[in-house]
Amino acid sequence: MLEIKNLSARIGDKEILRGVNLIVPDGEIHAIMGPNGAGKSTLSYVLSGREGYEVTGGEAIYNGQDILALTPEARAAAGMFLAFQYPVELPGVGNANFLRTALNAVRRARGEAELDAVAFLKLARAALKNLSMQDDMLKRNVNVGFSGGEKKRNEVLQMALLRPGLAILDETDSGLDIDALKIVAEGVNALRSPVFSALVITHYQRLLDYIVPDRVHVLAAGKIVRSGGPELALELEARGYAGLEVA
Amino acid sequence: MTALPTRSLEAWRYTDLRPLDAMSFAEAPAASIPGDLPDIGVPRLVFVNGRFDAAASSALMFAHDFATVTEESDLPLALINAQHAQDGLTLEIPAGVDAGVVLLISYANGGALHPRHRVSLGAGATLTLLEVIKGEGVYWHNPVTDIVLAQGARLAHYRLQNESREAFHLATIRVGAAADAAYESFTAVMGAKLSRAEFHVELSGAKAHTHVNAAQLLGDSQHGDFTSVVRHKAPDCSSRQTVKSVLSDAARGVFQGRIEVDRVAQKTDGYQMSQALLLSPAAEMDIKPELQIFADDVKCSHGATIGALDEEQVFYLRSRGIPEDTARAMLIRAFLTEALEPVTHAGAHALFEAAIETWWTGK
After folding, report:
1. Is pLDDT of A172 > 60?
2. Residue B97, class by beta-carbon neighbours within 10 Å (0-12 exposed, 13-18 middle, 19+ buried)?
3. Which one of B315, B330, B333 has the shortest CB-CB distance to A72?
4. In whole numbers, what is the pLDDT of chain B averaged over residues?
5. Which terminal residue of chain B has fewer beta carbons within 10 Å of its beta carbon, N or C?
């Protein structure tokens, strides 16, 4: 379970999060929607430990542990996963090497046996097939020369291999056509289980047709201003975000 | 003895040889080679303290026949080498012969050594020459390598400079390439307290090609100078000078790259790139590109980057559970991958990979 209590954060002198409160129970998928500049991406970066953000108050507890004190790699080992809005290109780093290094680092940290090259390849090929991805994806450099859709699918491939307990998807739908969107959604839905939860951050309702959330929250000006069921997303789609700050 | 060059010379502006001058090295003593020589299953020629070691060599089909040196240039280190040279590799590959791979091992453990190596390839001949340069203790290694490539000859010249961390290494490599000949080199600069590799490549026949490529991995207070001069003396020649430097601690790297294009060398294609990763605030990189062009229909470009690792990339790897140290190592290896790509011989490639791995693990 993820519990965010009164979380505030800033970049430099600029307050971005102003007391976020949110609980995501195990087994649930929650969506965070909101206008541009509301602090959606900041929330995902603060939760995953990116440098440059100063937490000025509050806490984030995942499975009983205060994650804000952990390094990004320790958060990953604890079961958290951030799917990037803009996946980073790594020239000279082969995708297979990257995926295996990441998988084995996480397995080691969790006290599981590391996978050898053969066992890894078998696992990776199966995951690729589930995501309708070509095997040559493994031979290419990480995200280099990938289309927008391929980059997002590569994020979902990493998620499928690392099997996180909590996934944070930061505008994973941006730049995706409808087919890629369906594949990404299927990848997330395949992970649904009583021990998996996800925070789906999106500007548009469209993604939520394919990843149906248990709860929808609206983040505006650094605070959750409204929460509701999946129908809230449809309402936002119809009426827009205007006026929500005072709701 | 000819005096060592000083920093008042433009070509020596970034490399100060006074620490070497203060050493007053005597001639290197005779020595024997320690047991652990690299072996990649190819003919091997071994020099110990500048002298040919027949017992340790396995490529005796190449006649060892050292001729007296006459030096025609005014390069100070080549002149000093000529005054002291007593031995060196002489490798002559006849026209049309593919001589495969030859491993040249230079080992030193004291004094001053001035070997004079000569390599010549007849028309259409090919050779891969892999040099492994290592040693122990304090010494000065001042090799000069003269390479002559006849028409259509191709030499791949790979050098692993892994001298003792207390040593001085000043290498001069001169290449003359006739029409359609190609000189492809890769140097890994990892050893020595102070080193300089100075290349002079003359493209003297039409459509000759060269790639002078290097990776410098320096730490502590190591100083590494990579200097390369390519002279285009005929039309339709192409040249690339590429250097990647990874500098940690208080290491200092230098790249001086020069492209000279004669009036007759139309359609020259010259390219030069220096990229440096500084891993510490005390590390320093000096880059001096020089283009001297007398022809009017040429394509010459140069570029330089100096920076730290991209923190966005580091975070991406860490967010996937990869520990910070491993993440940084992966990105540095990735940076060097491109430099190693032209080393196509599998055994040589593996040797460089292993040396880089060892360098990194020792950090």
Report:
1. yes
2. middle
3. B315
4. 94
5. N
Mutation target among B244, B316, B330, B331 for the A interface, most CBs of A within 10 A: B316
pLDDT tens readout for residues B307-363: 999 999 999 999 999 999 999 999 999 999 888 988 999 989 999 999 988 887 665
The candidate with the shortest Cα–Cα distance to A47, out of A198, A210, A214, A226, is: A198
Average pLDDT, stretch B123-140?
97
Q: How many A-B residue pairs are in contact by the CB < 8 A criterion? A: 73
Between chains, do B323 and A73 touch, taking CB under 8 Å as contact?
A: yes
Chain A residues touching B324 at Cβ < 8 A: 71, 73
CB atoms within 10 A of CB B276: 22
* Residue B290 token pair: 């020089």
pLDDT in tens, B255-310: 999 999 999 999 999 999 999 999 999 999 999 999 999 999 999 999 999 999 99
Domain ranges of chain A: 2-92+164-246
Whether B320 and A51 lie within 8 Å, measured CB to CB: no
Please tell me the distance from the alpha carbon of residue A14 to that of residue A54, in angstroms, as a whole number: 10
Q: Are A192 and A181 in contact (CB under 8 A)?
A: no
Q: Given a cut of 90, is residue B64 above it in pLDDT?
A: no
CATH superfamily, domain A2-92+164-246, is P-loop containing nucleotide triphosphate hydrolases (3.40.50.300)
Q: Grade residue A247 by pLDDT with cuts at 50, 70 and 90.
A: very low
Residue B319 to residue A106, Cβ atoms within 8 A: no
Please give the C-alpha separations between residue B240 and each of A188, B31, B334, in angstroms, as whole numbers. Answer: 47, 39, 21
CA B173 to chain centre: 8
Task: Give A245's pLDDT tier (boundaries 50, 70, 90).
Answer: low
pLDDT tens per residue, range A16-44: 999 999 999 999 999 999 988 899 999 99
- A73, A75, A166, best to mutate vs chain B, most B CBs in 10 Å: A73
Taking the CA of residue A146 as centre, how many other CA atoms within 13 Å lie in the half-sphere pointing to its CB? 29
C-alpha distances out from residue B96 to A41, A52, B345, Å: 64, 62, 20
Amino acid in the structure at residue B60: L
Do β-strands A29-33 and B111-113 pair in parallel, antiparallel, or remain unpaired?
Answer: unpaired
Query: CB-CB: which of A51, A82, A103 is closest to B311?
Result: A51
Q: Please answer yes or no on whether A90 and B317 come within 8 Å at the CB atom.
A: yes
More confident residue, B39 or B137: B137
Pairing of strands A90-94, A141-142: antiparallel
Distance, in angstroms, between A71 CA and closest chain B CA?
8
Q: How far apart are the first and last CA of chain A?
A: 28
Cβ-nearest to B330 among A49, A50, A101: A101
Q: Are B316 and A90 inside 8 Å of each other by CB?
A: yes
- A166-170, strands of its sheet edge to edge: A80-83, A166-170, A197-202, A29-33, A215-220, A223-228
Please return the burial class of B1, using the count of CB atoms within 10 Å of its CB with bins 0-12, 13-18 and 19+. exposed
b vs e for A5-38, b when ≥16 Cβ sit within 10 Å of the residue's Cβ?
Answer: eebbbbeeeeebbbebebebeeebbbbbbbbeeb
